[in-house]
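Example record

Each entry pairs one chain with its bound ligand, pyridoxal-5'-phosphate.
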Amino acid sequence: MINSYTLSKALLGRARAVIPGGVSSGNRANWTPFPLYYARGDGSRVWDVDGNDYIDYVLGRGPLILGHGEPEVIDAVCRQLRSGQFFAGQTEAEIELAELICTLVSNAEMVRFCNSGSEAVHACIRLARSATGREKVLRFAGHYHGWYDGIAWGFSGVDVHPDGASFPLPMSLGQPSSDASNIVAVEWNDSEAVANAFRTYRGEIAAVITEPIMFNGFWSNIQPFEGFLRFLREQCDANGALLVFDEVQTGFRISLGGAVEHFGVAADLSAFAKALSGGVCLAAFAGRKEVMKRLIETNTVHTGTYNAYPPAVVGALRHLTLLAASSGAKLQRIHHQTALLERGLRDLVRQTELPLLVRASPGAVTTAFRAAPTQVINHRSAAEGLDFSLQRAWHLAMQDRGVRITPEGLWYVSAAHSATDIAVTLDAARDALQSLSS
Ligand code: PLP
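Structure tokens for the complex follow.
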């Protein structure tokens, strides 16, 4: 039952001599028992180099919402690679993809393409500053908006001083402290804190940026309070700031029209990545024409050698077209399978004495172990009482039983996950919980 990871271990040893930690993205180092090496992916499954196979709920950390190796996406990418790799010029597919996004996402009147969610967020913030002539950005503790210096303040929480003033904590060493003065970070779902921030920094806040559902942080998948996103919209309107939705997680996952459709609240600008592209490297930002046009009518710069890389654009176009076909039938299937998984996991919660918690949004489930019974509404409450050692043991126990989830306990669901996959997963989860309780 327990997998062997011998070849992965040998590769990791070799990698560590030339790649720090043997990984190219810091969070991959958190894997249990150590970072693994992978050989193949197909549909809902991946295989590591030791030949262990897994039902995959990591899905590239979200992008592979149709599963690994969707044939139509792969064909489109290969055809484009053969017919012309890259022009540093425009392609018609780029227009088609922008048009499709504008059709699906109601607040997207214009779109620009880039390569990662971090870049898309960076561009939204630059545009908001350009449009308002202000520098401060209001963001929420524990939300993740990429790793760039300017915004990666407050991900690790806020430091509250005895006089009540709060200061955002940097995510990383190496971030210039001068950037902190441009960030106002408050707890999410706290309308009073938002209103206070606008009062304290009257006329200084360029934008409020939020994950519409708090996917990141300690125990993700936290929903906004009823009316909270609308309150942000109203506060931005009343104070001349722009509302930015970081839809890197929610976009094309919770709904084809993203959070704007799901919650019925329009943002001025939105950042997209992950489920936009189906596993090719593409991201986008979109929003109101009047704001987006600043990219050409003012000296608000957005450039990039690989922006709208044609193989990625045609792959994303095919992917998004498939996702949107038949009134979003594939997305409905993903939501249905997510609900199946969530229900099964909730049944297991009733059967175990371990403090297993389950949350879900359309397209993704989260599991965590947490003894403290307080309501989880934001970064501060999410961090209380989490049992990280049980979380790590659970991650490994699931992996040993052929189920691959993220170490933080976020499970992405794809259209390729079958009812059998979910049933096998739940059997593995039952067995894993039994092994952890004994
Ligand atoms: N914003 C959110 C909400 C994310 O979850 C992420 C990544 O997980 C990012 C931004 C950064 O995206 P990327 O990793 O593509 O730079």
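The chain is about 40% helix and 20% strand.
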